[in-house]
Specification:
Keywords: Membrane, Transmembrane, Transmembrane helix. By secondary structure, the chain is of the alpha+beta class. The protein has four helices and eleven strands; from the N terminus they run αααββββββββββαβ. Strands 1, 2, 7, 8, 9, 10 and 11 form a seven-stranded antiparallel β-sheet that branches. A hairpin with a 2-residue loop joins strand 3 and strand 4. Helix 2 runs antiparallel to helix 3. About 10% of the residues have low confidence.
Length: 303
């Protein structure tokens, strides 16, 4: 049997050492011995050992610090993730609270508008009743002043006035005819009246033959009167050309006058476009006249 030579044994030993690495002296905390210790004095050898001890200690400290740093970073990352999660939840809660507050505010706004609309309707009915009583009072007063039996002509006038009362009470605007397609006659506009007028938005209206349309975008509005268009910003005024109008019923003239309109846009109120209107006329406008020619969806209040 042939025995392995020295070279083969050394190679095998090297392979085994690489495959199974045994703990080094440094891992065991033992200070390594220099290879040339025979050539070193005792003082040099002691210094070498001291330096090696310091190096080994430093490496251990560095490893401990690195491990602590890794643990700290892991803890900080976990803490940051938790903070971000809590912040996201808080933002979500705040957003839900904001949406709920907006919803409640919108509901409150709608409820307020409904209440205002109901009050306006009650006010409108009261004004119409007041106008009806005023007309009846004027009729009685006229009869007392004349102090005589109403003639045939007087009866006709009385019938027209009664019809006017019916128009005011029932809103039969179709009985009233008007024509403002005439240029102004040039009469002095000696009379002036102011009204707060609220028009339904983007609706074609008819004021005794005068077409009127208002279109609002909130901060500005377009107001068309007899096909004359004016654009007004909030608080801005516009004056329309002077015209002549004749309003009649059953062929009888109820109102005949030159007039000129100046409107100031005041914004949107209870879902209607609000204007301050100054009407200058060459003849006085009877208090009951407004109730005759205004459409039912329009609110007009003397100012």
């Amino acid at each position: 049997m042939k025995l392995p030579d020295k070279k083969s044994i050394e190679g095998l030993t090297k392979k085994v050492g690489e495959a199974v690495k045994l703990p080094s002296d440094e891992d065991k905390g033992v200070v390594p011995v220099p290879e040339n210790k025979e050539n070193m004095t005792e003082e040099e050898l002691e210094k070498f050992r001291e330096d090696e001890r310091k190096r080994i200690e430093k490496e251990k400290n560095d490893n401990d610090i690195a491990e602590k740093a890794r643990k700290y970073e892991a803890i900080e990352a976990e803490k940051k993730a938790e903070e971000e999660r809590l912040l996201a939840e808080k933002k979500k809660e705040q957003e839900l609270a904001r949406l709920e507050a907006e919803r409640q505010a919108e509901e409150a706004k709608k409820e307020k508008e409904r209440e205002e609309w109901a009050r306006e309707e009650e006010k409108k009915k009261a004004e119409e009743e007041k106008k009806r009583k005023e007309i009846e009072s004027e009729i009685l007063k006229k009869q007392k002043e004349e102090g005589r039996t109403v003639s045939h002509t007087g009866r006709n006038i009385l019938i027209v006035v009664v019809l006017i009362v019916a128009v005011l009470a029932a809103g039969y605007i179709s009985l009233v005819t008007g024509n403002d397609h005439l240029e102004a006659y040039g009469y002095p506009l000696s009379y002036s009246a102011q009204y707060d007028v609220r028009l339904p938005d983007n609706t074609n209206l008819d004021f005794a033959g005068v077409p009127v349309t208002a279109i609002s975008s909130g901060d500005s509005a377009i107001l068309m009167i007899d096909n004359v268009r004016r654009t007004m910003a909030l608080g801005e005024s516009a004056t329309y050309p002077a015209k002549h109008i004749t309003i009649g019923m059953f062929g009888m003239a109820l109102f005949d006058s030159d007039y000129q309109i100046t409107a100031t846009y005041r914004g949107v109120v209870t879902n209607k476009d609000d204007f301050l209107v100054i009407a200058k006329t060459s003849a006085p406008v009877p208090s009951w006249m407004v109730g005759i020619f205004k459409p039912g969806s329009v609110d007009i209040t003397p100012v």
